[in-house]
Each structure stands twice: as structure tokens, then as C-alpha cells.
């Protein structure tokens, strides 16, 4: 069975249960997951005080899913994991919506935690998905866009 059990970028709501179920494995003694949600504030990229966020949207480059799989393959090569899963949302999201969920299962908890941490960190740095956030003062900004 493949280590990468779920890799997707979708416009529909994300499910923690789906992602955690995807990494269940009889050989895994530890499972770790991370769920990123839309919060009601963010520090502007210019470093000013946090601003109230009303909503945001995510856009993905056509290569984003391929890049996600590459990131997951690298994590699988670097850690003794049994399974990995990652999904990221695109489109319009509201406060409280899940934007990204990742999970890793491994023989031991430390390996699961480390792999899960690397998976979310590398996903955020290497997969071309950009956030456009809208603030209550009427302004907006792109985050992560070149």
C-alpha cells in the first residue's frame, strides 16, 4: 500500500475525520494531524498591528497538486511513516473554516509529530497556493504571492 494515502486541493469543505482516517494503519503506533483554520485577524505583511479579517480566498497554481505530491514524497523519504495525507482548500472561505489539514502516522509518536510538522511547513513554503485576505477596513492583501 502506498504511503501517500490522500493528496488533494479542493473547493469543498475539508474534514478532519477524512484525513485522519486516511492515515490509519495497523503498523502505526502514533498519528499526528494539523488543521489550519481561518482566523478573524492577521498581522498585515507590512508589519503593522493585527487587522480584523472578514473573509479570505485561496488560489492555487495549476501545478499545486503535483508540488503537494512532491512535498509528500520527500517527507515519506525522510521519515519512517506508515501513511501521509494532506488536503488544502481553495476558493472563498469564512472565519472558522478549515483551510488545510495534514496528517502522518508512524510506528512511534515522535516520528508522527516530526513528519506532520515537516509536511505542513513544507506545504506552506513550497506549494504554490496563495491567500487573499479581506479586512474590516475595506483593504485586502495577497499573502504568499510573488
Provide the succession of SSEs: EHEEEHEEEHEE
Structural class: alpha+beta
CATH class: Alpha Beta
- The level of helicity is 25-40%
Second-tier CATH architecture: Alpha-Beta Complex
Mean pLDDT: 94
Total of domains = 1
Counting H and I runs of at least 4 residues, what is the number of helices? Answer: 3
Main sheet makeup:
5 strands, antiparallel
C-alpha Rg (nearest Å): 16 Å
Give the termini distance in whole angstroms.
Answer: 37 Å
- What fold name stands as the CATH topology? Aldehyde Oxidoreductase, domain 3
Which residue ranges are poorly predicted, with pLDDT under 50 across at least 5 consecutive positions? none
Percent range for β-strand residues:
35-45%
Q: Tell the overall outline.
A: elongated
The number of E-state strands comes to: 9
The CATH homology group name? Molybdopterin biosynthesis MoaE subunit
Function: Converts molybdopterin precursor Z into molybdopterin. This requires the incorporation of two sulfur atoms into precursor Z to generate a dithiolene group. The sulfur is provided by MoaD.
Protein name: Molybdopterin synthase catalytic subunit 1
Family: Belongs to the MoaE family.
Pfam family, one: MoaE
Amino acid at each position: 500500500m502506498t504511503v501517500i494515502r490522500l493528496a488533494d486541493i479542493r473547493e469543498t469543505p475539508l474534514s478532519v475525520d477524512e484525513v485522519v482516517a486516511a492515515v490509519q494503519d495497523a503498523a502505526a503506533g502514533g498519528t499526528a494531524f494539523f488543521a489550519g483554520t481561518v482566523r478573524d485577524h492577521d498581522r498585515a505583511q507590512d508589519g503593522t498591528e493585527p487587522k480584523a479579517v472578514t473573509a479570505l480566498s485561496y488560489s492555487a497554481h495549476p501545478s499545486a497538486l503535483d508540488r503537494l505530491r512532491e512535498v509528500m514524497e520527500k517527507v515519506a523519504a525522510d521519515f519512517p511513516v506508515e501513511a501521509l495525507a494532506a488536503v488544502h482548500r481553495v476558493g472563498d472561505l469564512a472565519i472558522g473554516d478549515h483551510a488545510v489539514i495534514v496528517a502522518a502516522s508512524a510506528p512511534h509518536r515522535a516520528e508522527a509529530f516530526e513528519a506532520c510538522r515537516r509536511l505542513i511547513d513544507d506545504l506552506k513554503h513550497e506549494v504554490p497556493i496563495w491567500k487573499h485576505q479581506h479586512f474590516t477596513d475595506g483593504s485586502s492583501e495577497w499573502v504568499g504571492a510573488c
